[in-house]
């Protein structure tokens, strides 16, 4: 079962509140969030103006995505408090 939490993502003056799945098995050495291109567009990160093309190993095989370092400020919005913000890298999946 997926566990979703409410997060606030901020890029410059753009701000979006959305849900994030937190139990995906996605592990990294740095704080990352994978986002679809429509959300990246809302946050001003798409079309891509910086970042790098990366290969990712997924349960369905290898795929490519774009990594933008320190792209977003992320806050976790709980019922009784806000945790963060922290800076996270954005992994943009164009598929």
TrEMBL record:
Organism, by scientific name, is: Vulcanisaeta distributa (strain DSM 14429 / JCM 11212 / NBRC 100878 / IC-017)
* This protein's name: Uncharacterized protein
